[in-house]
Amino acid sequence: MDEICSGLFIDDYVRRRYTVVTPDDVEDIKQKMETEGLDLVISDMESKLDGWKSQPLHCGITGSSGTGKSSFINTIRGLTPRDENAASVGVVECTTEPTSYPDPKNPMLQYWDLPGVGTPKFPKDESYLQKIGFERFDFFLIITANRFSENDIWLASQIRKAKKNFFFVRSKIDQDLFNEKRCRANFKVKDVMEEIRNDCVEKLQPDFGNPDIFLISNFDPQKYEFPSLCLKLIDALPQLKKEAMTLSLQSLSDTMIVEKKKILQNRVWYVSLMSAAGACIPFLGASIAIDTALILHELQFYRQQFGISKETLASLSEKVHSDKKNILNNVQILTSIDTTENLLSLFASFSSSMAVEEVSRYILGIGTLISSGLSFSRTYRMLNGQLDQMEKASNEIMALTLETMLDADELD
What is the mean pLDDT of residues 283-302? Predict the structure, then answer.
């Protein structure tokens, strides 16, 4: 396997994250094939690819009642209030105890709806920090729907003393803009947002200088500063947790799509090595069975990461202009690529190299090396090609989604 890896650029983080497959690993795969069967071999490989879900992440969401904490928790998890396991949404305080809401794609990532500070049960003192389990959190979001309160400032000061990360979030920006648009003759989104930001900064400046404040809408997360907030959350985490957070969040911006693709390209490299290892197994058909299972697993994962689904496209198709429907038709092809039937068609374009691979494994001395190299190359090219197409499709979906939102704003 070292021969296959020679000449490949593999950075230190990738080497640590996905250990290079060694001859001992190949021998272990052979033994598992003999004793436990192909299904378990494939299951073990897929478990290694899902290792990013093993990183515990705890995000504390706090603020006064009615500020949109529950709505934020639903939105960042890609849920609506009507979905199963959604946080309860209401105009009165729904949170009487710290309540965790796991991310649907990654149960180890938990968003905690925290009671607001300064109530009889959760007073503004150290008992509040103890009651919410302060130490477990990786970072906090302090949310308000108007100015930040004295209680918000006190909590931020406590978080800063503990050297943890926190972010100020001003929610319901869509409602403010709608109201201002109805009242102003010379309405400009940029001007109103700047006024709202300055109003928040004025309250925070004595204690926090000129802090970052993210102006968001929980109902239109692609707009305003929700995408920027998501990227900031990722930046605040150590490397392994950074990967888990990136893969758990939605593709809300072109920058997020780029970040996701970087991680997925590392997986392409690892899956290709697994494919090469499978080509070393002296069982007829084992190599193609491993490749099929791993590539299907990856293509389904890529579609999920880039938000490419039949439901998304169907919803978007009802809103876009007729001259843009050809874009959706092209993207539609990718929603069914991750089926065995379509994957076999994709394999057909590489049929000659596959045939050579099956024959070459029987060449005395160098057959295994040749077949492994061919298997690595085929899998690497296939997955990279699909990854490029899905990246492009995701950007097109995002652009069309924003376009329909802007069109709706103009109608208002």
Answer: 82
Q: Given pLDDT bands bounded at 50, 70 and 90, which one contains residue 2?
A: very low
Question: How far is Cα 324 from Cα 250, in angstroms, rounded to an integer?
Answer: 23
Question: Residue 404 has which token pair?
Answer: 């329909």
Asked if residue 373 lies in contact with residue 4, where contact means CB atoms within 8 angstroms, the answer is yes
DSSP 184: -
Sign of CA pseudo-dihedral 375, 379, 382, 385:
negative
Helix axes 150-161, 189-208, angle to 10 degrees: 60
CA angle 273, 275, 279 (to 5 degrees): 115
Are 25 and 273 in contact by the 8 Å Cβ rule? The answer is no
Lowest mean pLDDT among 18-22, 97-101, 136-140, 333-337: 18-22
For residue 367, is pLDDT > 60? no
Residue 168 has pLDDT above 90, yes or no: yes
The Cα-based distances of 37 to 26, 288, 293 in angstroms read 15, 15, 14
Q: H-helix or E-strand containing 60?
A: strand 57-62
Q: Write down the pTM of the prediction.
A: 0.84
Using alpha carbons only, how large is the chain's radius of gyration in Å? 25
Give pLDDT, residue 266: 87
> For the segment 39-60, what is each residue's pLDDT rounded down to a tens digit?
887 888 888 888 899 999 999 9
Q: What is the mean pLDDT of the chain?
A: 82
CB 290 within 8 A of CB 271: no
**Structure-token match 């503004």, residue found:** 124
Task: Choose among 198, 231, 200, 245: nearest CA to 63.
Answer: 200
Furthest-apart CA pair in the chain: how many Å? 83
CB 277 within 8 A of CB 26: yes
- What are the angstrom distances between the C-alpha of 310 and each of 106, 314, 397? 22, 6, 12
What sign does the CA torsion over 206, 207, 212, 218 have?
negative
